[in-house]
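Propose amino acids for all 348 sites.
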């Protein structure tokens, strides 16, 4: 018998997040489509990387996953239970004990008035985990887990280096033994010299603790190396999901191929795939495929209808595109094709 599939830790179904933004006058309000129609799952122990340009919805997706952002519509299931059908107290307890989040900038994510000991103990106090003595022991354990010396327990965040502050943030995310940790650009505010240390720490903790990890980043090559699966987002939509081993050369969506062409390997450098055309606004997304205004393969059908999710040739691979890149098509050929199209579109 084929074993039953494991229940995902978290599953989004047709999740939308729409904000109202004031623009163009006192009484004018635009709608910002931050997340549109997201279907997304994370399995126990899996590492999922999320990539895309600024403003594509990565951080919104991260906040929805950990219950920090309520979707405008759609469902969020945490271990099969509808998160937003719960009573507020139950939801806070479920989210707090089951998920942890590491934010982009530890200097703003940590309360600068509280010492490290209080920062790490707060989740334990709020959720009444153990006795006071057990909570103090857990604080010491957490500091050891992330490589912080015990002498820093009484230090304030302003007295720590950027790397040390981010280690505190990681320890706080782990305080209640979550099954899922979402890291939203966890190294972008750090010096280059300490980024690798934090990334290695996250990978080590994932293996030691059996965590599922969602890693959001602009550094797409790091995402590829760290992840089991890579999700590409564009203008609030998930446009492709692919196994990390295939995302460089076998991705089917033109945007995914363009992203990864922008950071080629040193041994075989190539020019990136050029993207011509305007970057659309999240307040007025284009009809049909959101990427069509910049895509060298776009035709009239791309403006008329949103492409359905199509399966790739390997499990876990799916993409939304009317004119997908041929599987295994060399990037050099795509560069030449896109460059030729961009040249024809330039005004004379």
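Proposal:
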């Amino acid at each position: 018998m084929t074993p039953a599939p494991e229940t995902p830790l978290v599953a989004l179904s047709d999740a939308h997040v729409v904000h109202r933004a004031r623009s163009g006058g006192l009484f004018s309000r635009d709608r910002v489509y931050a997340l549109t129609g997201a279907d997304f799952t994370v399995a126990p122990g899996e590492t999922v990387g999320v990539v895309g340009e600024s403003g594509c919805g990565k951080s919104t997706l991260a906040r929805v996953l950990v219950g920090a952002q309520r979707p405008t519509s759609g469902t969020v299931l945490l271990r099969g239970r509808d998160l937003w059908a719960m009573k507020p107290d139950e939801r806070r307890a479920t989210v707090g004990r089951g998920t942890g989040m590491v934010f982009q900038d530890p200097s703003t994510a940590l309360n600068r008035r509280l010492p490290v000991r209080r920062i790490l103990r707060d989740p334990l106090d709020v959720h009444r985990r153990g006795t006071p003595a057990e909570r103090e022991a857990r604080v010491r354990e957490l500091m050891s887990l992330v490589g912080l010396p015990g002498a820093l327990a009484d230090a304030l965040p302003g007295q720590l280096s950027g790397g040390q502050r981010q280690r505190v943030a990681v320890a706080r995310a782990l305080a209640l033994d979550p099954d899922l940790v979402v890291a939203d650009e966890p190294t972008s505010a750090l010096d280059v010299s300490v980024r690798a240390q934090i990334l290695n720490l996250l990978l080590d903790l994932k293996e030691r603790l059996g965590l599922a990890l969602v890693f959001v980043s602009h550094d797409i090559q790091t995402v590829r190396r760290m992840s089991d699966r890579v999700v590409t987002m564009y203008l609030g939509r998930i446009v492709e999901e692919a196994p990390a081993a295939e995302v460089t050369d076998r991705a089917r969506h033109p945007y995914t191929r363009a992203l990864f062409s922008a950071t080629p390997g040193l041994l075989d450098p190539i020019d990136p795939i050029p993207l011509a055309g305007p970057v659309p606004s999240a307040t007025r997304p284009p009809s049909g495929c959101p990427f069509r205004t910049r895509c060298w393969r776009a035709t009239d059908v791309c403006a008329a209808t949103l492409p359905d999710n199509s399966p790739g040739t390997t499990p876990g691979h799916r993409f939304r595109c009317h004119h997908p890149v041929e599987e295994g098509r060399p990037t050099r050929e795509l560069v030449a094709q896109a460059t030729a199209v961009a040249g024809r579109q330039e005004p004379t």
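The chain has two domains: 44-68+86-227, 248-345. DSSP finds eleven helices and twelve strands in the chain.
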